[in-house]
Design a protein that fits this description.
With 201 residues, this protein is mainly β. The protein is built from one helix and twelve strands. It has a single domain, classed as Porin (Beta Barrel).
Length: 201
């Protein structure tokens, strides 16, 4: 009887250890940058922006050892978007940008290196900062629907932690902040490079 109990105990310990080693979820915190490209349009509106910096929180759930679903929330501190109309009238909107996105992630394993690609839908929320930099206080918050894509690599520093670096792109319409004269009628690709640390559990 004691042997049976001892064997049952060993089996339970092995199962628990196996489950502990099989991390199905992870959460990561990253520093990000937002880089918006120069955009000229057929409506005589030109758009340029300064870089901004922020942070992102991500959660991944592993469907299989090589595929996962990911949810992201990111926010930039501020960046200035410059609009020029017909090369004469200029406007600046100081902006804080929030990202909410979801993605499918496909990863590959090469020893401690895990390259991955991802893609999925998302929204960017452009929040005007009403201060002296913003030249029109009538600008309004705008939500842009778009798509996220990216590729990166994770380096395992322990069974529970890895370091991730990735290029992320977000495609959405150029914001107008409620002003029809700022409408470029164009989409642009925003670059979101990110580097951070993930914890597996």
């Amino acid at each position: 009887m004691k042997k049976i109990a001892f064997i049952a105990f060993l089996l339970a310990v092995c199962v628990a250890a196996g489950r502990a080693q099989e991390s199905r979820q992870d959460i990561s915190v990253s520093g990000t940058a937002i880089v918006e490209p120069f955009m000229a349009s057929s409506t005589d509106v030109q758009v340029a922006a300064q870089r901004g910096f922020g942070a992102m929180l991500s959660y991944r759930f592993m469907l299989t050892p090589s595929s996962a679903l990911e949810a992201n929330y990111g926010i930039t501190y501020e960046n200035k978007i410059h609009y020029t109309i017909s090369n004469t009238n200029s406007y600046v909107v100081n902006t804080r940008t929030q990202e909410i996105s979801f993605a499918y992630v496909r990863s590959f394993t090469y020893k401690k290196y895990n390259p991955f690609v991802e893609g999925g839908p998302g929204v960017l929320i452009f929040l005007p900062i009403r201060n002296s930099t913003t030249q029109s206080l009538d600008v309004k918050q705008q939500t842009g629907i778009g798509g996220l894509y990216g590729a990166g690599i994770a380096y395992e520093i322990s069974p529970s932690f890895d370091i991730r670096a990735e290029y992320r792109g977000f495609v959405t319409k150029v914001p107008t902040f409620g002003y029809t004269q700022l409408d470029t009628k164009r989409w642009y690709n925003i670059s979101y490079p990110a580097i951070g640390v993930a914890y597996h559990f």
